[in-house]
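Sequence, please.
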């Protein structure tokens, strides 16, 4: 699919991807620095690290996952800033390549939402699992707590691929001891009124459903100050 979203083929050059990453992460770093300067202890900083599902593909400013989740968490009484660390079209390998950039601002919590584009390109599950595991390890070594969001594979890829793909996320969460949210698009996937016309990316209403569903998991990490278990 054209358009550079969650389901894009990612045909850009390395230089283009680097340019996009720089454009994304300059405001990311600024947001984190401002959050920490707002009070003596600093706000809890959450990085939404993913592809177009966290980047807000096709949505107006303020309608994407990061601002909507931030609003929801603040309504729960948390002093929190959620920064958008999503890049449309990213695979798990792309995410691993920029994991150090995400951690430069020392977020307290990182929501890892990657792997969907690996699936859409039919990339090997084993390679995706290795990349995601390395991402989680890098985040943990940087002192942040992780919420790993899972994804489901399409039926067109076959039952075996579906099974292995789904299991990869749960296995990483188990092995790394991180909090696990099984399906990022829970309650939204395949619901026409909650998706953009492409039927694949959530619309503004869909994003609010996702944020409402995932917020308790983020709250658990924020309030516990530990690994969520």
């Amino acid at each position: 699919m054209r358009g550079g979203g969650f389901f894009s083929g990612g045909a850009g050059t390395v230089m283009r991807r680097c340019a996009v990453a720089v454009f994304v992460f300059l405001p990311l770093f600024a947001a984190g620095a401002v959050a920490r300067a707002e009070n003596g202890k600093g706000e809890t900083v959450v990085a939404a690290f993913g592809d177009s599902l966290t980047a807000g593909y096709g949505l107006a400013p303020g309608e994407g996952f990061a601002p909507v989740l931030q609003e929801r968490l603040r309504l729960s009484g948390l002093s929190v800033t959620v920064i958008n660390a999503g890049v449309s079209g990213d695979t798990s390998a792309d995410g691993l390549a920029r994991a150090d950039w995400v951690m430069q601002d020392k977020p307290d919590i990182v929501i890892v939402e990657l792997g969907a584009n690996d699936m859409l390109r039919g990339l090997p599950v084993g390679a995706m699992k290795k990349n995601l595991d390395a991402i989680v390890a890098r985040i943990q070594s940087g002192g942040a707590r992780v919420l790993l969001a899972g994804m489901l594979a399409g039926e067109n890829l076959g039952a075996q691929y579906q099974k292995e793909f789904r299991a990869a996320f749960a296995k990483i969460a188990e092995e790394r001891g991180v909090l696990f949210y099984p399906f990022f698009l829970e309650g939204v996937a395949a619901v026409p009124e909650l998706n953009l016309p492409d039927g694949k990316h959530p619309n503004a209403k869909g994003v609010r459903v996702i944020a409402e569903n995932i917020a308790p998991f983020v709250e658990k990490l924020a309030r516990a100050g530990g690994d969520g278990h």
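The chain has one domain: 14-224.
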